Recover the amino acids of this structure.
């Protein structure tokens, strides 16, 4: 027997949570055909002595919907061992989109997902190779990708497609809901892995207006979700709000028989009712009733780096509604206005939630070019030295740099004792990397290597076998990705080889490699020795091995959760 690829001498962690075994893996025609003993030679051989061989990691919460059209490698996810992603979360996406609505979609993504419009326009080009959702899936499949991709159909593009700009202003009429239902059905039949929406108050779109899904009545959302049950496939994904939370999810799960997953169960930040302890308790009660409802959790603190050009963290405040609607000069005028400053200070001192006040007190000045000595210092510390209010200092530093100064705030998940409880619950699933979104504000695409380095090696909170299960078969099962997440005979050969003694995520750094030179934050991986997708070695020793533009790439479009479905 000659294998296309042979991985020898590794500790095989198969993704089930079972104890590792020592042995070899043989791959032929993109599939695993030998485990443990693999007699015969390999056309390519990887020496995994002293290393772990695991299934490729599965990231169920990304926003690569636009980026995939110009970055077939879907960087930086493969750097960190990810071989499968799901896009279209929170109801956002780029299809279906009428040609005359493209600017609406791009301006929405700019605001709500922190994407550069210049980068989006340069990357997508003047003529998009799709309008409908089925055409979008075909375009992804035609151009190929380095890793596997599943796509959710999003509520925001559907509403724009049916209602135009009125999508952000009003509930839909019955005929419009009927049209949207047909678009969801068309998408699921074409291969969408589910339907996604959002009612989160943080999701503010262009002009300071709520994103389209927030203008929808809950009855509309439930009606669209019921299409999942009628078709008999797909998951319902939502970013929660006070109108759409656990009891509504229970209703949807009962009515459709389909799984529900929601974003996100975090310490120190609640988008729905109650704090994280109450939300976890109720989630576990629903799970005990047999309802397939899965809160998404993350092992990382949610650290936002931002400029007051796009004050994402503050936009849920009614005080910031005029700011969100203003251009750059308008924002400068508002920030300089004494009445706004007094109101901002008052809100932060009296009205803001205690958790948000606590997070704001930990804000770091991350970039201030006129005086770099201020960088990496606490905002409140500098404000005390200068005898000014922290909110005034924030605005002063921003105005002194034409709103280019950057600040970093830990908005959630910085209490690791509480985070550990969320990670260990039997009803939760790891998600919320947000890879591809908020590119200049955060970088959590490194979530898998962070879990393995910090929570497994440094804290010993999980066994390596359990952590690998949490990154592989668990998210694949929840999202119905039926041929991913395991090392088993006959399974596609999605594999990651890593060093358990060094695996981890590097310090976040800023690069300017998006279209039009736009910036993003990235984190380098440590200890990831090789990444294999469908039997093809795509990365080794921290280098891409494929030609980004010319190669036929090995990633597969997972229609209805399975390659070739």
């Amino acid at each position: 027997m000659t294998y296309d690829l042979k991985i020898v001498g590794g500790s095989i962690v198969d993704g089930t949570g079972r104890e590792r075994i020592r042995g070899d893996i043989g791959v032929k025609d993109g599939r695993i055909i030998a485990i443990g003993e693999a007699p015969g030679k390999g056309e390519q051989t990887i020496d995994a002595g002293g290393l772990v061989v695991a299934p490729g990691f599965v990231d169920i919460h990304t926003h690569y919907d636009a980026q995939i059209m110009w970055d077939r490698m879907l960087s930086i996810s493969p750097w960190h061992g990810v071989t499968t992603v799901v896009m279209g979360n929170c109801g956002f996406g780029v299809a279906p989109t009428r040609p005359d609505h493209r600017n609406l979609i791009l301006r929405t993504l700019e605001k709500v997902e922190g994407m550069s419009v210049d980068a989006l326009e340069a990357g997508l080009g003047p003529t998009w190779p799709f309008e409908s959702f089925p055409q979008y899936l075909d375009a992804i499949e035609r151009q190929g990708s380095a890793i596997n991709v599943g796509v959710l159909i999003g509520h925001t593009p559907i509403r724009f497609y049916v209602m135009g700009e009125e999508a952000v202003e009003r509930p839909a009429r019955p005929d419009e809901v009927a049209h949207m239902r047909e678009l969801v059905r068309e998408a699921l039949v074409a291969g969408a892995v589910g339907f996604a929406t959002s009612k989160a108050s943080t999701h503010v779109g262009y002009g300071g207006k709520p994103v389209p899904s927030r203008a929808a009545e809950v009855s509309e959302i439930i009606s669209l979700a019921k299409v999942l049950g009628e078709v008999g496939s797909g998951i319902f994904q939502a970013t929660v709000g006070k109108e759409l939370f656990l009891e509504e999810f229970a209703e949807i799960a009962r009515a459709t028989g389909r799984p529900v997953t929601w974003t996100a169960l975090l310490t120190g930040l609640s988008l729905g009712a109650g704090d994280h302890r109450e939300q976890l308790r109720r989630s576990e009660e629903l799970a005990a009733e047999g309802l397939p409802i899965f809160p998404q959790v993350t092992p990382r603190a949610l650290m936002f780096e931002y400029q007051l050009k796009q004050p994402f963290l503050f936009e849920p405040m009614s005080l910031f509604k005029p700011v969100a609607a203003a251009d750059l000069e308008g924002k400068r005028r508002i920030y300089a206005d004494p009445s706004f400053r007094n109101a901002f200070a008052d809100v932060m001192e009296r009205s803001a939630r205690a958790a948000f006040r606590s997070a704001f007190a930990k804000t770091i000045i991350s970039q201030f070019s006129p005086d770099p000595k201020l960088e990496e210092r606490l905002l409140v510390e500098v404000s005390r030295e200068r005898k000014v209010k922290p909110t005034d200092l924030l605005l002063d530093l921003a105005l002194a740099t034409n709103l280019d100064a950057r600040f970093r705030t830990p908005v959630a998940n910085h209490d690791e004792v509480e985070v550990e409880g969320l990670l260990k619950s039997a009803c939760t699933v790891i998600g919320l990397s947000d890879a591809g979104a908020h590119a200049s504000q955060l970088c959590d695409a490194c979530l898998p290597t962070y879990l393995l380095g910090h929570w497994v090696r440094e804290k010993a909170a999980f066994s390596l076998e359990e952590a690998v299960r949490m990154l592989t078969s668990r998210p694949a099962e929840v999202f119905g990705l039926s041929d991913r997440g395991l090392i088993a005979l006959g399974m596609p050969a999605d594999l990651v080889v890593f060093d358990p003694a060094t695996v981890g995520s590097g310090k976040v750094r800023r690069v300017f490699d998006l279209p039009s030179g736009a910036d993003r934050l990235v984190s380098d991986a440590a200890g990831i020795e090789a990444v294999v997708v469908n039997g093809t070695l795509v990365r080794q020793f921290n280098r891409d091995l494929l030609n980004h533009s010319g190669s036929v790439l090995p990633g597969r479009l997972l229609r209805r959760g399975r390659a070739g479905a």
Q: What stands out?
A: The mean pLDDT is 95.
